[in-house]
């Protein structure tokens, strides 16, 4: 049931009483004229008195409101004048039309009215504020103080003429920034330090000097502890745990971690240099997270060859050092252990897919065929994943396709992905970066991945491997696979062409045994020669067309010598094997007197290839890493997509110039 609407008439009580008296006086006139007239005159008086009283009260209220407005205006003026932050009002042209006391004290200038704000504070983009027509913020430094300026455009209507003014509020945030800086400076950084090849270094020194090496290492690290006001603890014979604040860590960064050089200069007749690897974790949410970051950074430093410091935060890495070449290990125990484990993993898998990096070379293809022979000796079917060949492996692939021993050895990406299962073993050779592999999709299709590589570790790495054989001191992946074949428990017999492919890979990466060649390299080559590798047939794998010689001649002719010891060259000739040609040209340029490093650029399929070579003094791996590439301290490369040859040339030149400036 709906409620009935109700109507209320709001009449002041005094008026209601007067109205009742008026009605009563009019009624009384009919009964008693004189008394009615008296009452009527009283009614008129009450009407007049009520009207007069109402007007007086209205005037008093109006006056009160006016006085209150004046008080508010005065209070507002005083509040603005005594505002605890600097404030100024500008005309459209930037001239100051008004300012408060705080702004006067901030500028410490007299007679500011009419002065343009640009004459006091530079780089204020007022035009942008007017165009945006909204509240904006700008950070600025003025007289050693940090301010955030809040712009506010206001409209002032005067005699039907709109006038715009700009109010600038100056929020001093110096104390806040100082507190933030102090907070960041006092953050703890976790540092894990490991002496590289500690036992081998001590063994390389006379027995009476070995304690002195140990004492010298501790003295240098203790000195760092004192100067940085940190804390260090030796956790084992070759490992240390170090804690310091972020401010002191920045000092080490500004010095490019000179402690690495101090350690390297330790000399007590030791044949092997003393070097350390440092992993630093910083900016984690917890101490435990910093420790995990430090552990990951140390693994990366060791994977890149040691003698360097790696700083790791949650989203980036920073590298310092890495000037020393990795020292070859004399023991082959790890090769035996990896070989035994690899044999077991192969036997437990349904099938095996082997793949190298994109645009495979003889090191990738030779090591892949070596793994194929290992799988064959374990009675397990294996395929090499390859979509298309290139000139660097064409001759070798052609020989395999004509041999019944390698029947149906190759499989393309599509079939490999379709047939891959969780129990398929994926063996990745000659690369550890997922996006560099021949078919990256296979890494997620299988639960069993094995990585065999010799390149210095980069930021990207294939994780969750069932077996990792990563040795950066080795000349080539083919050398590593040859040792696996040689030291497996089963007496594996490899095909003659397989042996030639492995030897070709070693020859390629050592530049015919000139670079990164150790005792174990010659032992591996000797074994391959013993099982039937023909050096003449290996040489034929590297034969070039006449056009390649012409292109190399053009590259050498375009070479520019930088600071008398770095060669930079390029070719605009596009060829299917341009990556091979520029690599060969980079090798040739190292034959120039005084040249310590060479960089050669070439282009193919809208992609710029960069090949870098060094005699060891300049770490080309670090330089190529800045372009997304990598490799070794003396052999490295990079690829740039959607970049012109001229732009890439400028980028490499800038990196070289930066390197030379840091050397100074």
UniProtKB/TrEMBL annotation:
Enzyme nomenclature, EC number: 3.1.4.-
Catalytic activity of the protein: 3',3'-c-di-AMP + H2O = 5'-O-phosphonoadenylyl-(3'->5')-adenosine + H(+)
Main enzyme class: hydrolase
Membrane topology annotation: Multi-pass membrane protein
Membrane-spanning intervals of the chain: 16-48
Family statement drawn from the similarity comment of this UniProt entry: Belongs to the GdpP/PdeA phosphodiesterase family.
Role description: Has phosphodiesterase (PDE) activity against cyclic-di-AMP (c-di-AMP).
Protein name: Cyclic-di-AMP phosphodiesterase
Source species: Romboutsia sedimentorum
Phylogenetic lineage: Bacteria, Bacillati, Bacillota, Clostridia, Peptostreptococcales
